[in-house]
Amino acid sequence: MCPPVDGDSVYIGTGNNIVIDVTTPKLYAIIIDGGGVYAFPNCAQVSTKTIEANYIIIRKGGVFQAGTESNCYCNNLKIQLKGTMTGAEGRQLPLFGNKGIFLQNGRVDLHGCPRKQYTSNLVVNAL
Known about the structure:
Blueprint: E1 9-13, E2 17-19, E3 26-33, E4 36-39, E5 48-59, E6 63-66, E7 76-81, E8 100-104, E9 107-110
Parallel strand pairs: 1-3, 2-4, 3-5, 4-6, 5-7, 5-8, 6-9
C-alpha cells in the first residue's frame, strides 16, 4: 500500500490502527471509523510531528490518541486544519463547514508532559 499524498483522504476502519511517526502530507480528510490513530512518544529523539488535514472525523468508537497517561507525549505534535473559504479549495462538507475535528461516539486522548506550576503572592489586595 502506498503512503498518502497531498489531497488524499485516509480511512481507518474498525480493527485497523495506524501510528503517526512522520509528518503527514496535507490530507483532505482523516476518517477514523472505529479504528485508531496513535502518536507515541520517542523522548530520545526530540522532534515535531505535524498532522495536516481539512477534516479529522472520529466516529463509531474510533480513537485519536497521543501518548498515554503513564507515557506522555513529550515531543511537539501539531494538528493543522487547512480548510479555506474561497476558491476551489473552499469546498465544504454539509453540517461540518470547511475544516474541523469532529467527534461522534469516539475518543480523543492527548497526554502531554506535565507543566511546571507557578504561583505568585499578591503584595496588596486588588480591591
